[in-house]
Amino acid sequence: MTSTQALKAVGILPDDADRAVLVGRVWSQAAEGPCPVILRNGDVFDLSGISATVSGLLETPDLLARIADEDLPRLGHLDEFLDGSAGRLLAPVDLQAIKAAGVTFADSMLERVIEEQARGDSGRAQEIRARLAPVIGENLRGVQAGSDKARQVKSLLQEMNLWSQYLEVGIGPDAEIFTKAQPMSSVGCGDKVGLHPISEWNNPEPEVVLVTRSDGTILGATLGNDVNLRDVEGRSALLLGKAKDNNASCAIGPFIRLFDGEFTLDVVEKVVVTLLVQGEDGFEMTGESPLEAISRKPADLVGQMRNRSHQYPDGAVLFLGTMFAPVKDRRGKGQGFTHEIGDRVEISTPRLGSLVNWVDRSDACPEWDFGTRDLMRNLVKRGLGGKI
């Protein structure tokens, strides 16, 4: 049984899926290629007649009215894409830039500082955690990034020789915005998620992902796993690219929930993202990340990503960061958490559903072999070249 065959639609959709506007992507065997889709009562309907890409779809004027059209081709039931009989579920983005904000939660800043101080050695983490936690934990909770209070905290920690580059982007005026992955490279719900084979200390990062069109307007949200290699990035911040952008290291899904009269950015800002890791060794770990604890407003982070100095003509998605940095011992006392091959990772929140993936090495995951040129050729072959 493959990982996707272990999933059912009822287990990955929002609790109020009957009222949600859910768009995404599937690889359709019938269409012989990727299709933007809308989900209705568990059935998958093709939106290629409006736009052959999700990027183009999100640029459509009066989007909600256009996709409300009842006369859309049905591709099958979602379960048929989860069991492989009609195709497969893809990440719900295609041409968009895939960006991420780092160190956005005060409660996870301590762990980033520990990574830096430990220089990638997980064995030193507990000692450093015990030394730093009383100072940083007491001073960062409730501190708004870029505020006068944040500047006071910075001065205090500098005097104590505890200031860090992670704290600079965590509570300083400028957020860390980096490229998580390349357009077309993300994996979807049910796929394997990859760890670079050089890493021995790593963890999932359960996050809300905002979806924007080219002018920076936030149109909706989904879930993401910003896989983190703690030992690699901990050795040097200059290894961020190697730690973050690897084969199958970015998971997004299951669907984009578009904003409407009931589901808004205000609702997103109050969601609690939960994490469940279940190992083949019987290990289990849970955690949660309430978005209300974020140190910067999501709209502010989008403004730091997309502005007059930086544009994204195909749109962009932005991982908002996580406050969850797992420390539960797995391989031995004081060693903290790290993944093992075969771990099942479930990232959930009732209004967005569940993103489920299984962990493997990035060199054992399927290679990324369908890029932008392949997409363009496929769409032209299917007579959709004018719908991009």
From TrEMBL:
Residues 216-359 form the Fumarylacetoacetase-like C-terminal domain. Pfam families: FAA_hydrolase. InterPro entries: FAH, Fumarylacetoacetase-like_C, Fumarylacetoacetase_C_sf. One of its GO terms (molecular function) is hydrolase activity. Signal peptide: none annotated. Keywords: Hydrolase, Metal-binding. Belongs to the FAH family. This is Fumarylacetoacetate hydrolase family protein. It comes from Paracoccus broussonetiae subsp. drimophilus.
